[in-house]
Amino acid sequence: MRPYELSLTAAAREIRARRLSPVELVDSVLERAREVASLGAYVTLTADRARRSALAAERDVAHGRLRGPLHGVPMGLKDLIDVAGTATTASSRVRAGHRAPADSTVAARLTAAGAVLAGKTHTHEFAYGLTTPQTRNARDRGRVAGGSSGGSAVAVAAGAATFALGTDTGGSIRVPAALNGVVGLKPTYGLVPRHGVTSLSWSLDHVGPITRTVEDATTVLAALVGHDPRDPASRPAPAPDRRPATDPDDLSGLRVGVPTTYYFDHVDPEVADAVRRAVDRLALRGARLVDVEIPMARYVQAVQWGLMVPEATAYHERTLRTAAGLYEDDVRVLLEAGELMSAGDHLRAQRARTLMRREWARMLRQVDVVVAPTVPLTAVPAGQTSVSWPDGTVESVSDAYVRLSAPANITGVPALTVPAGTDRAGLPIGLQVLGRPFDEATVVRVGLAHERGSA
């Protein structure tokens, strides 16, 4: 196995044992990034910076100054995340010539943990889309990568980053992770600070890891959490769970909610079957399956758009007036549409979200997690704009991909996607695990059990 193929956990173990140097790992990942450059995962590679950081990490390791599991490990950062002295382009001509004056909180924390920046990854322009058109799917170049963190997901799936960060406003970590067959974790709203991260919708935005394994995701998350007063939504990290470790394959007593509404409606049969098989395997590990109705499901799309659209337009108000021609047409139209929404529309969406959060909290008192498909269909061909369902319903590709992920953004609950096999075309299917606010531990526990049972 070549170094770029190692998971974060495996790479950290090899570095700690002095069987692999950070320089070897970083060089392997950079070379791999060049080999798969046609996938379009990166806006830019920071190769010189990465090699300097790898050399410094190698010296630290040689002198017994290992900072932890991220020390010397190469990462990709979605190009909404500020790194001092580098461009934050948001994959947009609007940001031409931009240079970040300081590190974002998450970049600073990862650097302090010893992680090495391999480069900045592509996003759908300003994260306002679900396909990332600049980037090709790692499994099939003729298919969409998913978005908006498509570059981050493809970089990890292709071996061009050992881990990456994305942002998630309506599914933008989980959608591309699912479509490329990797792990994506959207933490609880407020758990990971967003200072220095370009916003799409401040009340829905999250930052989180994209990795190859669930254990990798928890390792990265541990380096990111903690209060930052510069983000008004930031919350302290919960106290670590001090209970004795249990058998990770034993889910005895865990109540797993299986939706009877919404999450299996208008879902490709291959996706639904793969997820139901995964749920059955959880039951074999002792989980108790409980049918649940998803509350207020018919309001999800209206609330998501009612919050996101006016907040995005407010963020772009100045440049929309002075440089509208620099935006791609699809994003410009959405931003202009936001100017037509009234304050009343936004307030109604906020009120509906309050009710939805309350009803989800009630549902999550009945179960410990909810499991469901991450996306209703696998990666569609690039350029496909709509999906036709057997009952005659026609849905845009973006609406289809966001439909099953948006509830976790509206309610703020943590959500994890893990690979759940492939369809007949060999395209990845994602299983989504949703839990109570700040109970990432239980979400991860279920994800680990699924991952180990599928290996």
TrEMBL record:
Domain of life: Bacteria
Name listed for the protein in its UniProt record: Amidase
Species classification: Bacteria, Bacillati, Actinomycetota, Actinomycetes, Kitasatosporales
Record-annotated Amidase domain positions: 24-443
Cited PANTHER family: AMIDASE AMID-RELATED, TRANSAMIDASE
Region (Disordered): 225-253
Coiled-coil region(s): none
